[in-house]
Amino acid sequence: MQHQQPDADVAIIGGGPAGAGLAAYLAKAGVECVVFERALFPRPHVGESLVPSSTRVFKDLDFLPVMEAAGFPHKFGAVWTSASSDRSFDHGWEGLEPDSVVDIAFAERQQAGVDQNYTYHVDRGKFDNLLLHHANTLGAKVFEGVAVTDVKFDATPFPEVCYTVGRRQTSMTARIVVDASGRRTFLGNRLKLKVNDQVFDQYAIHTWFDGYNRSAAGGPGKGDYIYVHFLPITNSWVWQIPITDTITSIGVVTQKRHFKAAGKDRAKFFWESVDSRPELGQALRAAKQLRGFSEEGDYSYAMQQITGDNWLMVGDAGRFVDPIFSTGVSIALNSARFATPDIMRALETGDCRREAFSSYETTLRRGTLNWYNFITVYYRLNILFTAFINDPRYRLDVLKLLQGDVYEEKEPEVLTIMRDRVAAIENTPTHPWHKLLGDLTANAFKPTF
């Protein structure tokens, strides 16, 4: 009797960085995988600044030559600028004059598996398209404009992925189904596993400008760095990301309640926010806005589980915290990297139960929890983050986190020290930094899924 075979080894829902990265890893290893992407690439998307841990994945996938040929701006480090108004205490900067900056270069610390001192700023529409096509070149089957509508795990002997092509409903079977659907969280919603974060409620409004003076809001004139401009509005900041030599992505990130209070007028809220840093607002008004305003909310969530029998989640489909340290694409790419060995082993042994993906789940949860706690410390006491970057004892350890090396240790020592320092300040009302404690993450030091 001949054993029944599935239509593919692995079916991947979503062709963004997580799905395309995983497809590339698997196809390169000879695994028969299929990617279902509901959009037609290239799709309009926010500009994004990568972290250096992404480079390790690009090297694995022989994708670095593609990145270089695409001409994406090189990113050598990061800059944080402070507000100069009287309300700037919300983001205190010890020992710094108003309008001063803190910057850090990736070249200051060697990274294992990474042999270049820069990463990239990317137009996500272009970047996602290139990575998905690269996966296809390596052998992955890619279907664009195809929407997955259901996954039937009770189908025997293999899960059945149902999808639409035009108006036609059809399906295919696979040994393993991977949810890489991004913040749409296809399986998370279908299996009722999604848990919205009750602490982080950040909201973003963003657009692109041509001809913006990237040094207008202060800084060392390093236009190839990512800039984070703190606003004199509690827990609010602006990203500044080069897309080309002249085009810059600008986004305001704030608490959702601030946006609601402004009456949900995107343009009004954006301009009122950037005008709280007059030099920033003036420079943006002198530039040409290229796109309408886009908004993104409900940033932060987790999943009760990210693996199960015959399935797993990668990238934003399984977890997202906050965009402050540009972690999204890095987590997506590295989740693909960490998932690949478990998937390969499961296919080789024929054991696709949840336990087969335990190494992946443990590694990814460890890394994302480290990101979560690092971001929590940052929002709780911004001045501490600045002080640790300026302190030679901790500078390289903080840089390691910013580079995306967060998966090896249960909690890096520097992060433990930072958390302990915050706790001590919370318990000492007379400490000069006590009044600088932010309220956003006051109750965030709790284990999450």
Write structural notes for this entry.
The protein has helices at 17-28, 53-60, 64-70, 124-138, 186-190, 256-261, 266-274, 278-285, 328-349, 358-380, 382-390, 395-402, 413-426, and strands at residues 8-13, 33-37, 47-49, 74-75, 77-81, 101-105, 119-123, 141-144, 146-152, 160-165, 168-179, 194-196, 202-210, 226-230, 237-242, 247-255, 288-289, 294-296, 301-303, 307-308, 311-313. By secondary structure, the chain is an alpha+beta fold. It folds into two domains: 1-72 and 121-196 and 299-449, FAD/NAD(P)-binding domain (3-Layer(bba) Sandwich); 77-117 and 201-296, 2-Layer Sandwich (D-Amino Acid Oxidase, Chain A, domain 2). Strands 1, 2, 8, 9, 10, 11, 20 and 21 form an eight-stranded mixed sheet that branches. Strands 5, 6, 13, 14, 15, 16, 17 and 18 form an eight-stranded mixed sheet that branches. It has a three-stranded antiparallel sheet with strand order 3-7-4. β14 and β15 form a beta hairpin. The longest helix is centred in the C-terminal third of the chain and has 23 residues, at 358-380. The model is unreliable at 85-100 (pLDDT under 50).
